[in-house]
Amino acid sequence: MSLREECEDLRKSFLNTGSWYKMGSRQSSIMASSHHVMRDASVSVLFCVLIVALGPIQFGFTCGYSSPTQESIISDLKLSLSEFSLFGSLSNVGAITSGQMAEYTGRKGALMIAAIPNILGWLAISFADDSSFLFMGRFLEGFGVGIISYVVPVYIAEISPQNMRGTLGSVNQLSITIGIMLAYLLGLFVNWRVLAVLGIFPCTILIPGLFFIPESPRWLAKMGMTEEFETSLQVLRGFDTDISLEVHEIKRSVASTGKSVTIQFADLKMKRYWFPLMVGIGLLVLQQLSGANGVLFYSSTIFANAGISSSNTATVGLGAIQVIMTGITTWLVDKSGRRLLLIISASIMSVSLLLVSIAFYLEGVTSEDSCLYGILGILSVAGLVAMVIGYSLGLGPIPWLIMSEILPVNIKGLAGSIATLTNWMTSWIITMTANLLLTWSSGGTFLIYTAVAAFTVAFAAIWVPETKGRTLEEIQFSFR
């Protein structure tokens, strides 16, 4: 058997995960009569979204893990603050292959691959006796969640009807916030080793769940798998739904490129490619430079610096607020649109981060016995809460949603890897330096974040296109 045939067999092995939906149209009609629930398109798509949402929950748990465990890990393993900052930042290393892997193995295959290093990483952390195993575990987690961070929003965007794509796409960020809150909450009751073991569960449920959902129809169409593409789309839209128009639009979209066309870096200079890539990268980088991950990774330390005695409990409250506000965004995004929410979100963050910066600066020059010192502590906490509310309203969920919508299908592998790698490299810089910057100057750190949030308002107003109510194919044709 040739190498090319072996590669095709490998790709098919990832595609053929589960067979309940692999049937002809006549068999589909027979099954539909006995399984009425599958006739409702929203039920079918929602089920798929809930399965893949286990990936972002794993992602969020990884992000939240470092906050409640910082003191105990440093104490038990005798780490320095710099070493723990390195540990926290190592979860940002896995994005380099995410787009290409999703193109080669399919969206489901990439998620299956991503689940394995996540499980191994948590086990390595739970049994770590020194920094080497701790770092190796975090590195493995980073590889897994780097893939998840790209693949899940792309899969959701590619399976969702246009009128539900914003709401379902926002489930990705909602799941991340749930994962963060779970890490914060469970961290109150269990030690860091047990918490690492609990981190295994989302991916152990995700792997069997992937056997019961269809592959992305748009990926199947791009790969030339016409029969599988139409079957997958029929399952997602309901057995009684006429999908002929959507099939035609998707086929027309991929016809000019075809399965065999390889996009090179030089091709990205065309406006229909560089503009959506610029918007996608810009939003993902600004999302990280706003400092949100620095706050979420080390929120317990920040609250302690603000004078809050029960900093871990306050962190759980912050996580709960983030879940609630992201849930509201999930409801709003298909009503108000992506661009408006981004502008509102970044505006709220600019004001709240400036408040936090001023409060921390004044705390540094105020006596701890002063009444003003306590008031400034309350103001800094209120500013952090407002920042998280603003972040959850737009800058948290929407960049990944827009990135999954605007990248043309034939460059998603290359461009998606570039965008995700840039995002995670920026995240690595933020999470690596956040603890050190906060030690240097809490007020100065938040002033930097304020400037980024203010620039994001202008970027969203000038460059970001509105994608609400448009099919992925319509969005792609608008860039030509």
Automatic annotation (TrEMBL):
PROSITE patterns per the UniProt record, alphabetical: MFS (PS50850), SUGAR_TRANSPORT_2 (PS00217)
Protein name in UniProt: Sugar transporter ERD6-like 6
Any one Gene Ontology cellular component term annotated for this protein: membrane
Keywords noted in UniProt: Membrane, Sugar transport, Transmembrane, Transmembrane helix, Transport
Subcellular location: Membrane
Pfam families to which the protein is assigned, alphabetical: Sugar_tr (PF00083)
Residues annotated as transmembrane: 41-59, 109-127, 133-156, 168-186, 192-213, 273-296, 316-333, 340-362, 374-402, 414-440, 446-464
UniProt cross-references to CDD domains, sorted A to Z: MFS_GLUT6_8_Class3_like
Gene Ontology MF term list: sugar transmembrane transporter activity
Homology family: Belongs to the major facilitator superfamily. Sugar transporter (TC 2.A.1.1) family.
UniProt source species: Abrus precatorius
SUPFAM superfamilies: MFS general substrate transporter
Protein's gene: LOC113869818
Chief localisation class: membrane
KW Flavoprotein (keyword) present: no
Any coiled-coil regions, as ranges: none
Domain Major facilitator superfamily (MFS) profile: 28-468
NCBIfam families: SP (TIGR00879)
Gene3D superfamilies, per database record: MFS general substrate transporter like domains (1.20.1250.20)
Membrane topology (UniProt): Multi-pass membrane protein
